[in-house]
Amino acid sequence: MGRTTGDPISSKMISFMEKSSWIRKMFEEGIRLKAKHGADKVCDFSLGNPDLPPPEAFNTALERAARDHSRGVHAYMPNAGLPSVRQRIAERIEKDHGVRPGPDDVILTCGAAGGLNIIFKALLNPGDEVITPSPYFVEYGFYVDNHGGRLVSVPTRPDFSLDLESIEKAISERTKAVLINSPNNPTGAIYSGADLASLADMLARAGVRLGRPVYLVSDEPYRRLAFSGETVPQVLSLYPESIVTTSFSKDLSIPGERIGYVALNPMASHRSLLVGAMVLANRILGFVNAPALMQRVTSDVLDMCVDVEVYERRRDLFAGILADSGYEFSLPRGAFYFFPKTPIPDDTEFVRLLQEELILTVPGTGFGCPGHFRIAFCVDEAVIERSRKGFAMAMEKARSRS
Fold first, then answer.
1. pLDDT tens-digit readout, 324-347
2. Residue 27 pairs with which residues in a beta bridge?
3. Is residue 104 part of a domain?
4. Nearest CA-CA partner of 176 in 195, 198, 150
5. pTM beyond 0.85, yes or no
6. Which of 242, 275, 299 is the endpoint of a domain?
C-alpha cells in the first residue's frame, strides 16, 4: 500500500497555484476594482488578450467552413492534422523560415501551448533540463515540469537581448533544449539573427560534445507582430536541430479557438523518430487532434494578419506616457508588451501603487525578473491615454519613498 498525505489534491499543484498566481491575482483585482469604481475608470493592462477583430477574410473562411456539410467533415482525422492543411502550412513555413519542411514535418496542435507540451513530452526524460532566457512566459516552467524536466533560466542583457555567455555556462549533461520566444513576452524584444546564429553554433558544439542533439525550440506566436519594419530571424534556416511552434492566437486574434502547429526542421538528425513521438504525444496527452473546423478555416487565411500598425501606434503612445513620467524602459520591437523597470526595488509594491491609481499591471516577479513590471497594450487607445495621470502619480509616490 502506498502512503498518501492528507492533502485533498496534489501538493505540487498547490505549489504551482501559488507560483502562477500573479496574473490571476491581477485579473481578480480587476474584477473588484471595476465593480467598485466602474469599468470605464479602471485601466487594465494585465492580460495579453488581443482585442483587435480578426481579419475579415477569417470571418469569410469561417462562414464558408461552417456551411460545409460534407459527410465525415467532423470525423476523427490523423492525429497530426488534416494532410491538406499540413501541406499548406509547410508552404507557408518556407516563406517565414527559408526552409521547406514536408507536410509530415508539420503537426497541428491546440495552440502553441499544446505544441510546447508535445515537444517536451517527446524530448524529455526525468531530470532533463530546458534552458530559457529570463524574463520568460510563466507557463514554461509548468510545461517542462509536466514531462519530468526542469526549467533553467538564464539572464538576458539589460536590453533583453540574449546573453550567450550565460546560456553556454548553463549547458550541462542534462541539457536537452534551449527554449526561446521572439518577439518576446513580456519584453517585446526580438533576438537578432547574429545572436541566434551564434547560439546555433554553440548548440551544435554542445551536441558534438554530448553525443546527441541539443534542440533549439522557438515559440513564435508573435512572429508577425513586429514593428517598424523589424525582421524576425528565420530560426529553422539557422540550425538543423530546431523546432518551431506557433499559434494563430495573436496574428489572427483568435486565442479562444486554440489552434496552432509545430514544425520540425527537415534536416533534423532524428526526424522520423521525433515526428512520431510528437504525433503520439498529441494523442496520449488528450489533445487527439487540433480542432477540425479551425484547421480548415486557418488554412485558407495563412497569409492574413491583424493590422499591426494599430499595435505600433499604441506602443508609441504608451512610450510617450512612460517617458514623460520618468520610467526607464526598452522600446518593444514586437508583440504588445512593455516591461519597464520599477522605480523602487519591490516590483510587487510598485504594482500595488499603480492599483491605487486604478491601473492594473503584472509584477516582473511573475516572469522570473523582479524589479520590472509588464504592461499589455492590447487595449483601446482611449484606455492608454486615460492612464497617463495614474502612471505619473504612481511615479511620484515611488520617488517620495526613495
1. 999 999 999 999 999 999 999 999
2. none
3. yes
4. 150
5. yes
6. 299
